[in-house]
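To fix ideas at the outset, we first show an illustrative case, written as a sequence plus integers encoding its fold:
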Amino acid sequence: MTTTLKPSAIGGGGGGGGGGGGAAVVDNAEGIARRFWIKFRKESTLALYTPFVVCLASGNLKLDTFRQYIAQDVHFLKAFAQAYELAEECADDDDAKAGISQLRRSVLEELKMHDSFAQEWGADVVKESTLNAATLKYTDFLLATASGKVEGMKGPGKLATPFEKTKLAAYTLGAMTPCMRLYAFIGKELQALLDSKESSHPYQKWIDNYSCEDYQASALQTEDLLDKLSVSLTGEELDIIEKLYHQAMKLEIEFFCAQPLVQQTVVPLSKNHNLVEHGFMLFSDFDLTCTVVDSSAILAEIAIVTAPKSDYSQPENQNVRMPSADLRNTWGVLSSQYTEEHEQCIEGILLTEKVERFNYEGLHKALEQLSNFEKKANSRVIESGVLKGLNLEDIKRAGERLILQDGCTAFFQNIIKNKNMNANVHVLSYCWCGDLIRSAFSSGGLGVLNIHANEFVYENSISTGEILKKVESPIDKVQSFNDIRKASTSNKKNLTVYIGDSVGDLLCLLEADVGIVIGTSSSLRRVGSHFGVSFVPLFPSLVKKQKECVEGSSSSWQGLSGILYTVSTWAEIHSFILGP
């Protein structure tokens, strides 16, 4: 249940997507460089989670792979410097010219760092290497953009006015800024993971270079220049820059993925999944794990919107429904009561003595209290009659329009398509109405998902107000989870992943081989920590596992370890399980 109703949750608005072609859509309060970085945060996450970067961060990246990477990067940086030179020629502002010139000098300094690596190795790795396809694709893209070979753009020899030249400079910076910001981001992320107890990291110099203040300042300067050069552009021209920015981000990922790895890696999980030896079972919660708003609010909204007015005379052959005003008030009372008693239940659990070591049995026993509370709350809802008279078609339409978390639908679509995973996917939910969940996923072509939830009881497609109770509580959830695992027809050992966001998911998260917590639920963390559960960010955990990875060893993922992995977005889940 939830305490607020949010009509936007089932509105016609989108969950992400580009603007149109007019300048009116531009938000000048924030520069475009920052907006594009936020918009394409999925790509930055995909880059961070590539096997190359994870191995580099762990320090166990094979030296030969790093050498070949440096050789490719030298080719790339030379093209990068050339692109800056072309952009400087097009800029009509002295300050912009000076800024671009300074950035070009920084790239030349970066090349000196790469030369120092070659000197340490005693070999000219650049001369010994040839451009791989990913590097060539990226450098061709940069130089083509800087030369004016952009759709809808005149060639450099035909740029008659200073404004047209400035536009080309902006386009060029649009293609270059993502690289600067991405490396600054990765440098900071890796720097934060360095262990002060370790004598030295094999790739400390590389990490120091991209995390240092000078490089961070260069990345910011590039973004500032892009913002400045784009001020006078139209919405359509800004759309072109956005496309260039996005393309550059994708090319960066391809560049990292093209580096030749000859070692065992912990990411992506799909690549390491041995279909011969193991099956793969993916479980996910629904409310606030997949959705933006709790489904109880959606169902209550449908009930209120479709309920008769107080003076409405209802047909005798129809289930008598509560007038909308009374229904809204009743729902408000139920919501407030649920919230207050839920918090009291959590506080009651936390009154027990805190344990030093992970105690699954103690947690299971404590959550039996929460389970009893959830069942009583559901009984109150049924007795109140607030769910009586909902039309099945209205529920399905609401499900089709339900806004899911950014990246959620795409993740499930890709999981289903991935032949290597051969995934068995299940959604476990407290939701009162499985039809709402099925409609939400079917609209994204995910009708094949196995939905385990409670169900409305209908008469002639109109809800009676009764609920067919299947999954009401944390205990019900973990029972369903274990029943599904046991019922698996495969004789193979199943690798299980569970994704959840609330205290009701705790037992399933811990039983799974990999438990992934998405979101920031305080009650989940408070209760889990009270019983010795450790919550650790996923990316640093993967770097640690990569550091411990022994060639030829099997997966170290194991349920009931007391460790849960935290993420903030579905992009992290996608990156970990499926990769780019």
Summary: The first strand starts at residue 278 and ends at 284. The radius of gyration is 28 Å. The beta strands are 278-284, 388-391, 423-428, 450-452, 455-459, 462-468, 493-500, 514-518, 534-537, 563-567. Confidence is low (pLDDT under 50) at residues 2-28.
